């Protein structure tokens, strides 16, 4: 790990580096003294753009900085005087405010006429406006007291961060320069019951309010050379450290070839629209660009060895600094904030700082519950509801996945999900510009309500969501069996029987969805067999290596070996169809690892007596680990690949005596870092 890589996960610190020499043109001539030295003059006032960016301004109109970066140069902000205002000034200000607050009868009549015209015009508009979700007033955590560094820095992923679980997560008010929480849908007709002109609360939805329809009524204008107007708000900050073509390219990368995008939460057609894009918070936009910056092949990203890391570091700083819920406890959170936490958690989970990612995921889970993303809101627009469904179910998936990764309890319960539909659009439909049918008008929507164990499609919500629901039960059973005071007795076998039935339901539904050998089917088959190994209780590698040789002859372990063989066969087919393992690299590694522990045990105990099919299976899983390291390099995969490769080499050479025992000791030492026993932290080393 280089210092430059580690720097991207330090406590956020925002820097704005502005070139001191313009890329084109010449600087204005500076005044000189009699002896030829330049005279540094202090300007009385900076322009609005330089004041916002905290950059040096020459006080001209337009100033040199705005000319260089094609920014609009204005001096319209209010002039403020230092010190306390005099009594006369305060009295005059109060009188002016009182006069302005008392409209004349003519003004009142004119305003009534304008409001009536506005309502009539909007009744015929085809442009909906999304509502702003969730005003919550439960301040439970103050980062000014507890410290931002305590929230961001740390590597112990064994326990949930209590400060984060009670963090008051919030969002800028609609009057701020940030965009509202939920974007304007572009395809559905307006319903005055859903989107009133004034910001009012809907009956039955306490805390839900809706912005003025007059906002964003006209197409957005873009600066010259900017492909996507959605970036207009954050462009001035981005152009201080990246070329003008890069933000648009990163946005395209996010929706096309981004392995850090776990599931499509946002509609591509809404974000990339050049006429009326979805309104987004700055934090969400920065998180989208941060996610894409890890995989972008833009020439600027490879222009120098540190270019990509520098861009990632700057984008992460901007994203964290603009997360209003993280910094200001008095403003409520929004759906955009949840998505930003998801992106931050994803890029951190894929790094060497896996334990630190739980800070972001805990924030996302907490805010999602506060915003009630786990229930249907019929009065909201169809696109908004689908965004909420996709966000909640992705958090459900990640919760189960990280429960296995870090040997931690679940944060989202099945009971909290029974009032929410699964995503009602396929990934292809979601990527298109088609109108979304409300759940109430879909005949079989009731079958997609709550937790389900059956495969419904080839996307992450079609085949991966059901298997994660089963994994949640296995994780809960695992923790119950390791409880220091509770004893399950025969209940343990009953729960195993129920979970085994759920896996049978999954297997039958997978066979029904025959996709003529699609790669997703082999991923699903591999997951099914790995979960059957986990259900048998073989999840801790050190316990397997230290187990008695008599375990190899038990019926349970023989059945477990059969599932490991079938899982290895699925891995071989996956490598044929997806040689770089790019289909789901974020999730695949840990299931590949757990499916390999059985092979490590057999090679460690049997040495030269291993059957040929076992050797082939071991070679297959080692090759898969090597591909995973190239696609998404993480330490646990490097360590296990080294341990497994060393065991295979020792088996082929027939190493005996002291050298053999030394190899076994090294294997136990390395796999002992990753424990799934009581008190173990899994991959969070």
UniProtKB/TrEMBL annotation:
Annotated Low complexity bias: 92-103
Keyword NAD set for record: no
A Pfam family that the UniProt record links to this protein: Fungal_trans
Keywords: Activator, DNA-binding, Membrane, Metal-binding, Nucleus, Transcription, Transcription regulation, Transmembrane, Transmembrane helix, Zinc
GO biological process: DNA-templated transcription
Region (Disordered): 1-38, 84-112
Superkingdom of this protein's organism: Eukaryota
Gene3D superfamilies documented for this protein: Zn(2)-C6 fungal-type DNA-binding domain
MF term (GO), any: zinc ion binding
InterPro entries in UniProt: XlnR/Xlr1, XnlR_reg_dom, Zn2-C6_fun-type_DNA-bd_sf, Zn2Cys6_DnaBD
Transmembrane residue ranges: 583-603
Boundaries of every Zn(2)-C6 fungal-type domain copy: 46-75
Family, per entry: Belongs to the xlnR/xlr1 family.
Protein name: Fungal-specific transcription factor domain-containing protein
Organism for this UniProt entry: Lipomyces tetrasporus
């Amino acid at each position: 790990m280089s210092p430059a890589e580690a720097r991207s996960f330090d406590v956020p610190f925002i820097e704005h580096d502005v070139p001191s020499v313009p890329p084109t043109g010449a600087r204005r001539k500076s005044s000189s003294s009699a002896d030829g030295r330049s005279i540094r003059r202090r300007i009385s006032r900076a322009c609005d753009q330089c004041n916002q960016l905290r950059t040096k301004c020459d006080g001209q109109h337009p100033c040199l900085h705005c000319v260089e970066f094609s920014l609009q140069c204005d001096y319209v902000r209010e002039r403020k005087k230092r010190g306390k205002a005099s009594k006369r000034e305060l009295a005059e200000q109060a009188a002016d405010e009182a006069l302005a607050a008392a409209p004349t009868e003519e003004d009142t009549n004119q305003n009534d006429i304008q409001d009536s015209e506005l309502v009539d015009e909007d009744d015929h508009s085809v442009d909906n406006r999304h509502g702003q979700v969730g005003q919550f007033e439960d301040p439970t955590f103050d980062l000014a007291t507890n410290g931002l560094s305590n929230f961001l820095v740390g590597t112990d992923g064994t326990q949930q961060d209590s400060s984060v679980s009670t963090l008051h997560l919030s969002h800028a008010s609609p009057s701020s320069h940030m965009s509202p929480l939920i974007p304007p849908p572009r395809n559905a007709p307006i319903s005055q019951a859903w989107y009133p002109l004034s910001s009012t609360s809907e009956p039955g939805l306490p805390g839900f309010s809706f912005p003025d329809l007059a906002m964003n009524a006209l197409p957005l204008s873009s600066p010259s050379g900017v492909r996507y107007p959605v970036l207009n708000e954050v462009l001035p900050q981005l152009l201080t450290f990246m070329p003008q073509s890069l933000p648009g390219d990163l946005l395209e990368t996010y929706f096309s070839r981004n392995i850090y995008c776990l599931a499509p939460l946002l509609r591509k057609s809404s974000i990339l629209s050049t006429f009326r894009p979805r309104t987004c918070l700055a934090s969400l936009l920065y998180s989208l660009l941060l996610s894409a910056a890890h995989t972008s092949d833009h020439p600027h990203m490879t222009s120098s060895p540190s270019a990509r890391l520098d861009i990632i570091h700057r984008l992460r700083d901007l994203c964290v600094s603009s997360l209003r819920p993280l910094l200001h406890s008095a403003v409520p959170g929004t759906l955009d904030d949840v998505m930003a936490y998801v992106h931050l958690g994803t890029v951190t989970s894929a790094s060497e700082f896996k334990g630190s990612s739980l800070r972001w995921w805990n924030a996302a889970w907490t805010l999602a519950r506060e915003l009630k993303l786990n229930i249907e809101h019929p009065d909201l627009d169809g696109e908004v509801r689908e965004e909420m469904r996709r966000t909640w179910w992705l958090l459900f998936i990640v919760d189960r996945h990280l429960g296995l990764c870090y040997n931690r309890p679940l944060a989202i319960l099945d009971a909290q999900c029974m009032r929410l539909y699964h995503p009602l659009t396929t990934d292809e439909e979601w990527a298109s510009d088609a109108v979304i049918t409300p759940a109430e008008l879909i005949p079989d929507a009731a079958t997609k309500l709550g937790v389900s164990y059956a495969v419904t499609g080839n996307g992450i919500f079609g085949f991966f969501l059901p298997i994660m629901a089963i994994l949640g039960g296995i994780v809960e059973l695992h923790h119950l069996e390791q409880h220091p005071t509770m004893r399950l007795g025969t209940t343990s076998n009953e729960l195993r029987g129920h979970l085994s039935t759920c896996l049978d339901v999954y297997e039958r539904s997978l066979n029904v969805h025959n996709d003529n050998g699609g790669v997703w089917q082999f991923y699903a088959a591999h997951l099914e067999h790995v979960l059957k190994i986990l259900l048998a209780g073989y999840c801790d590698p050190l316990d397997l290596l230290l187990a008695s040789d008599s375990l190899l002859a038990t019926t349970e372990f023989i059945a477990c070996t059969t599932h490991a063989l079938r899982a290895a066969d699925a891995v071989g087919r996956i490598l044929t169809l997806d040689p770089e393992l790019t289909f789901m690299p974020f999730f695949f590694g840990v299931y590949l690892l757990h499916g390999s522990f059985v092979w490590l045990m057999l090679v460690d105990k049997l040495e030269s007596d291993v059957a040929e099919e076992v050797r082939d299976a071991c070679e297959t899983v080692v090759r898969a680990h090597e591909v995973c390291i190239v696609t998404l390099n993480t330490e646990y995969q490097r360590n296990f690949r080294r341990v497994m490769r060393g065991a295979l080499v020792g088996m082929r050479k027939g190493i005996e005596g002291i050298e053999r025992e030394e190899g076994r000791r090294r294997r136990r030492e390395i796999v002992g870092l990753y424990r799934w026993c009581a008190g173990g932290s899994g991959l969070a080393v």
